[in-house]
Hints:
By secondary structure, the chain is mainly beta.
Amino acid sequence: xxxxxxxxxxxxxxxxxxxxxxxxxxxxxxxxxxxxxxxxxxxxxxxxxxxxxxxxxxxxxxxxxxxxxxxxxxxxxxxxxxxxxxxxxxxxxxxxxxxxxxxxxxxxxxxxxxxxxxxxxxxxxxxxxxxxxxxxxxxxxxxxxxxxxxxxxxxxxxxxxxxxxxxxxxxxxxxxxxx
Length: 179
């Protein structure tokens, strides 16, 4: 990317949501979110293909609607927020696969462990808001195995059901602002 034609975008935190879902006891789903996060995107043209994306979320901002569960997730059993206060994501590839559809590949780092993940990304369009700001919207979805990122805590009920699924579903609704 050349800096002469570099287009920079930042995440509009008040119009973005970073959520995840995990099966609990095989029969229900727990939804959580990160309330504190930041991201930026740099492109070298009007298209988003080949953009560079950096993202981070503060582990202490995790919110599942249950204080005890949130404390457990922040503990050494899961994210270990005391030693690893952030999770990060940086693109390694951002390819257009169809009109408005992209494959986003990047390195996700949690607990000091990095794994390459591939996410589906849908472009929702670009508009000018009432204040003259240019905005772009993306919906990002994917699944990952939490144990591959050292989130290995596990328990089994007396009946043999797994308490927390290994598979985590990611759902991000992101609005960007052109700088």
